[in-house]
Amino acid sequence: MRHESIVEAIGHTPLVRLRVPAPEGVEVYAKLELANAFAMKDRVARQVVTEARRSGALKPGAPIVESSSGTMALGLALVGTHLGHPVHIVTDPRIDPITLAKLRTLGCEVHVVSAMGEQGWQSARLDLLAELMTGLPGAFWPQQYSNPQNPAAYRGLAEELVEDLGTVDVVVGSVGSGGSLCGTSRALLERFPALKVVGVDAVGSVLFGQPDVPTRRQSGLGNSLYPDNIDYRLLDEVHWLSDDEAFAATRALAREQKVFAGNTSGSVYRVLTHLAAHAAPGTRLVGIMPDRGDRYVDTVYAADGTDRDAGVATEPAPVRYGELVHSWSYAAIPRRERPLLLFVESNTTGTGMLALTTAVRLGLEPVLFVVDPARYQGLAETGCRVVVCDTDDPQALRKAAEVAAGDREVAGVTTTSEYYLVQAAALAEALGVAANPAAALAACRDKSATRRTLREHGVRQPRFAEVRDPAEVAAAVAGVGLPCVVKPVDESGSHEVLWCADVATAVEQVRKLLAVTRNVRGQASASTVLVEEFLTGPEFSAEMFRADGETVCVGITQRTVSELPYFVETGHLFPAVLPAETAAAMADTARRSLAAVGLERGPAHVELRLTAEGPAVIEINARLAGGMIPELIRPATGIDLLDRQIRAAAGLPVDLTPERSRSAGIRFLVAAEEGRLAAVDGVERAAAVPGVERVTVTAVPGRPVRPVREAYDRLGHVIAVGEGPEQVGAALDAAMGELTVVVE
Asked: Are 331 and 320 in contact (CB under 8 A)?
């Protein structure tokens, strides 16, 4: 076949039949993507670069910057430099010398990070990439892990398979960015709905419900991050292979089939031969072989004796999806009739939509019950099934859930919105699925009920009084003392919580709160206000999780709040700097408070003050912490609390063992004066501070701003990660020093 350029020659790779043990009539093929000029991702590079040039995202002669340690880098080197673009590749020390030599010879500039980030090599590379982008005006970042042109590039591969074979019954592919297997299978499923799609991953990769092990030696598959290009709804089964098993399979592929390939191809070969041996007569299987073996001569193919493959698994162990694996194992991910996870409303931003995609990644089908879908930004992009009903009416909600579920299995019911905790628990009870008792959640949701319950169980807390009329305030204040705190019993976070120095201020705040008949979600207000003793002492929170009958303290967060009379969180440090016995006392107080209200499963965020007499409970929130605290816990410990919440709700295994011990902190951007936001200056400089993970501005110019009174007044945040609190504090101080909130 004649081509006008090397770029046009990409694709059209050989399809060869393999000689493997299998029942008569079973056909096994390898699609040798390694026969491209460099490897399989030549297809992606061509698709991404040419589309970016067509759309104008990549201007003529503009630089291309990407994070890659292998074949994507080579593909971009091929296509980008051929079309006249400088190519910058960000990689890590694991890059093999052959690939490095190829990249430099092709004219790329290669940038090698020196140390892992908080999420392994991948995050360190992305941090350096961000720095390069700021210094290269007009640079284009292909973003292979989230660019939809990545999977789109493999439609051509699917068409080649159909042209060569006519039909395909099983396709097997490795998973790294998710593009090749998902792009190929999506196109094939349009023609062959009964196609079985099998993914191959590495032990120690997070892609399919496993903890991250950044020291894994396999390359080209697996990940420490969750790429947007993986569509978990396309897969039927996933296999994990350890490093030794993958390397042994790669050598077997060369020895048995004369295909000298990389460990991605070897892993696919091992799974392909297993499936073939157990296939029904007439089954046609295809494995996608991504890259050649020349990069692995000093690793996979290094000679170290004839018995080096002794002891590796020869058959996979079946496991339940989400169960921890250490060697060759496989789990079903039902593409059809997945267990349902019902969501009763959700947060309108942030974790709300992320929880839906997390459920899909964990092999579940989320169904979201809402009053108003328009409230949820980004809902359409999740692909989640949405049911509109009155979520505050138990009968209407139950009927809608029963209709939506039909005869499908309901794995659980949950929500990411504090305003719907009780409704979700009541629905779970009505459907007969495990959940927290609705009464326990009601005792947390109603702060006056929390106070009464803790008093009955002898848990230290402020003195308090419930008032339903401004005329009752004077007596309430006489009982709790001045200064006092006035708060609504049914709002979330610091909304309308006020420190009052005198009775008149307390009366006015109570009158204001009692005049509110509907909360921010349109629910009827409780018409009750708490007047509480103001406890002195630093603020903390215990991040708790109840699983398998045990209440675990994931850690203690040190909280910084705004100046009185308001109580808005302006910063956090995790874990808090505390003597071990003090941290243990806080965790014990939090455990006793959760036992008092009867919480049985899932996350809880217990707010505490450390008084002279010891820890005292300020609030119990039967949900994940707000204020971005889960985003501190993840890099500090490796524990993804949102993932754990979804697992607990669906009855999946929950592992709360920390993978690392680091520090993380956050500072929130606030306005110093009232007016309109003109700009937030210095974002790029702040983001470049060593240790800063991200700088996010959430407010848009022109928005009215004021000195912070509630969480909605915050304008953005800075998150930093380091080996200890001093390092984190220094990074946050430096980053905040670069930022200026300009108010008109």
From this structure: yes
Q: Which two tokens stand for residue 735?
A: 């980053």
Rounded to whole angstroms, the Cα distance separating 55 from 430 reads 52
Q: What is the pLDDT of residue 214?
A: 77
Cα–Cα distances (Å) from 482 to 478, 487, 504, 527, 534, in that order, read 8, 15, 11, 23, 8
Q: Can you tell me which residue has the tokens 């992009």? A: 381
* Dist CA 277 CA 170 (whole Å): 13
Q: Which of 678, 676, 665 is nearest to 705 (CA)?
A: 676
Element (H, E) at 546: strand 539-547
Residue carrying structure tokens 């059209």: 12
Give the model's pLDDT for residue 117.
65
- Do the strands 237-241 and 329-332 form a parallel or antiparallel pair, or are they unpaired? antiparallel
CA distance 422 to 98: 59
**Count of beta carbons in the 10 Å neighbourhood of residue 344:** 28
Q: Give residues with Cβ within 8 angstroms of 726, minimum separation 6.
A: none
- For residue 198, give both structure tokens: 């099998």
- Percent above pLDDT 70 for the chain: 97
705 strand-pairing partners:
675
CA 623 to chain centre: 17
Average pLDDT over the chain reads 92
Type of residue found at 558: Q
Q: Determine the Cα–Cα distance for residues 587 and 610; give it in Å rounded to an integer.
A: 12
* Cβ atoms of 614 and 603 closer than 8 Å: no
Residue identified by tokens 């400089």 is 685
Sign of the CA dihedral with 114 first, then 120, 122, and 127 last: negative
Residues 6+ positions from 407 with CB-CB distance below 8 Å: none
pLDDT category, 1, cuts 50, 70, 90?
A: low
CA torsion, ordered 337, 343, 347, 353, to nearest 10 deg: 0
Q: What is the pLDDT of residue 305?
A: 44
Q: Which two tokens stand for residue 559?
A: 């909280």
Angle at 526 between CA 521 and CA 531, to 5 degrees: 115
Cα(148)–Cα(139) distance, integer angstroms = 19
Instruction: Identify how many contiguous H helices and E strands the chain contains and give both numbers.
Output: 22, 30
pLDDT in tens, 647-704: 999 998 899 999 889 999 999 999 999 999 999 999 989 988 999 988 999 888 999 9
Secondary structure element (H or E) that encloses residue 388, with its range: strand 385-388
Sheet holding 64-67, edge to edge: 64-67, 87-91, 109-112
Instruction: Quote the tokens at residue 337.
Output: 């009739």
**In terms of residues, how long is the chain?**
744
- List strand residue ranges (DSSP E) for 53-107, in order: 64-67, 87-91
Adjacency order of strands within the sheet including 340-344: 385-388, 365-370, 340-344, 410-414
**Could you tell me the pLDDT band of residue 310, with boundaries at 50, 70 and 90?**
low
pLDDT in tens, 477-488: 999 999 999 999
In sequence order, which residues have a C-beta less than 8 Å from that of residue 68 and are 6 or more positions away?
Answer: 76, 89, 90, 91, 144
User: What is the Cα–Cα distance from 209 to 574, expressed in whole angstroms?
Assistant: 25
Cβ neighbours around 237 below 10 Å, total: 20
C-alpha 266/C-alpha 228 separation (Å) is 25
CA distance 292 to 294: 6
For residue 89, the cross-strand partners are 66, 110
pLDDT digits (tens, 9 = 90+) for 521-567: 888 888 899 999 999 999 999 999 999 889 999 999 999 999 899 98
Instruction: Give the C-alpha distances (Å, rounded to integers) separating 532 from 441, 554, 563, 618.
Output: 21, 28, 18, 10
Long-range contacts of 396-405 (CB under 8 A, 24+ apart): 397/344, 397/369, 397/423, 397/427, 398/427, 398/430, 398/431, 400/369, 401/342, 401/367, 401/369, 401/427, 401/431, 402/431, 404/340, 404/342, 404/367, 404/369, 405/340, 405/342, 405/367, 405/431
The Cβ of residue 514 has, within 10 Å, a number of other Cβ atoms equal to: 18
Q: Tell me how far CA of residue 402 lies from CA of 336, 397, 399, 601, in angstroms.
A: 19, 9, 5, 24
Q: For 354-383, what is the mean pLDDT?
A: 90
